[in-house]
Amino acid sequence: MAFPPYTEEHELFRESVHAFAEREIAPHAEDWDRAQGFPRELFRKAGTQGYLGVRFDPAWGGSGLDYWYTGILIEELMRGRNVGVVVGLMVQCEIATGVIHAFGSEELKRAWLMPAIKGECVAALGITEPGAGSNVAGLKTTARRDGDHYVVDGSKIFITNGTIADFITLAVRTGEPGPRGVSILIVPTDTPGFSVGRKLRKVMAHSSDTAELFFENCRVPARNLVGEEGQGFYAIMSLFQGERLVLSYITNSFMREILGATLEYAGEREVFGSRIADLPVWRHRLADVMTELEASRLLAWYATDLMCRGDPQAEVYVSMAKLFAGELFKRLAPECDQLFGGYGCMEEYFVARATGGISGFAIGAGTSEIMREIIARRQIGK
Ligand SMILES: Cc1cc2nc3c(=O)[nH]c(=O)nc-3n(C[C@H](O)[C@H](O)[C@H](O)COP(=O)(O)OP(=O)(O)OC[C@H]3O[C@@H](n4cnc5c(N)ncnc54)[C@H](O)[C@@H]3O)c2cc1C
Fold first, then answer.
1. Is 243 tagged catalytic?
2. What are phi and psi of 7, to 5 degrees?
3. Is the torsion defined by CA of 12, 298, 302, 337 positive or negative?
4. Closest ligand 1 atom, CA of 160?
5. What's the CA-to-centroid distance between 247 and ligand 1, angstroms?
6. Where residue 2 falls among pLDDT bands split at 50, 70, 90?
7. I need a surface site. Which of 13, 113, 271, 287 has the fewest CB within 10 A?
8. 3-state SS track over 343-366
């Protein structure tokens, strides 16, 4: 059996997303990175194409498909070579809305999920706080019940789509300390007492919108509670697998584009009379990262297969896929950036923006490769 088990339908979907990325993202990729944002209009365009509800129930406007399609969506959106756009769109269609789809009331689905799937409104997920990141159960933003409302006080940080969101899927403390006191509320951003603090400038995923958010005496209708009070932590944890799988696809597809751009450059650039792509040192280094990237993609595909089958081992393999891809990026990005020499520090180059020009100090005043040549010639001989 072929693996991944793609059918003709998968390939048609891939072609459609590929064309969308080339038409709607690629021509603007550099400008949007510089502007540290992309137009809201892109959510609507993606929604019109049916890309914002791939896995969701058709009853709410979704397509009722599985994670293989989510994976293809990410792989092809990344052809536009702008990771921030992909992050913003995936927060909208998986990360901030998945919990409403899985646990929300019909009323919440009608009010927030359906317009989000159409791209008519923008969603964000608010979990992380200045004092609680990895330790989600330690979050301190409170929601106190007052009649038929909750009153929310606190703050969140690093929230993707934060300055542009129409609603926040917000993790709040409604009860005792620890995981059993956490709930999820939908907070419309026009609620009095809600404010956006700084739009945070990042050194990666430049065009995704990232913000700190404040909640001061925000009165939110109690019917905006997602699922049961005190079940929020468990709801978040149950959906983290999908979020982590999404992240592994984003990382792998981003690396595929970085490597692709690097191979293009290696085939064009001449040094000492030969193409970089013909130098044995670089051929071996590129072969190494190519092999590792393929291993990373296979691991993500295997994790997808387990997710789609509902296999209990999925949690382990999704975590492995996320771990492997994230750690590989830390090896692949500097390798690729190094091959660009000084251009690997210049903002106009996709690989420089993608890697933060991490190789700068291994380039100036003689590159690491030239240093190795000098050392080898002097210490080992011709
Ligand atoms: C670009 C970007 C977008 C984001 N978007 C969102 C968003 O939309 N919504 C949202 O809610 N959050 C978002 N986040 C926040 C992200 O989820 C947190 O940054 C992450 O969970 C880590 O939390 P932290 O930054 O507080 O780090 P910390 O939890 O303070 O961790 C700091 C270090 O301590 C280590 N550490 C922590 N606990 C342990 C332990 N038990 N054992 C060993 N080491 C440990 C960590 O691994 C890390 O190396 C985003 C972050 C980024 C960078």
1. yes
2. -110, 180
3. negative
4. 8
5. 14
6. confident
7. 287
8. HHHCCCCHHHHHHCCCCHHHCCCC
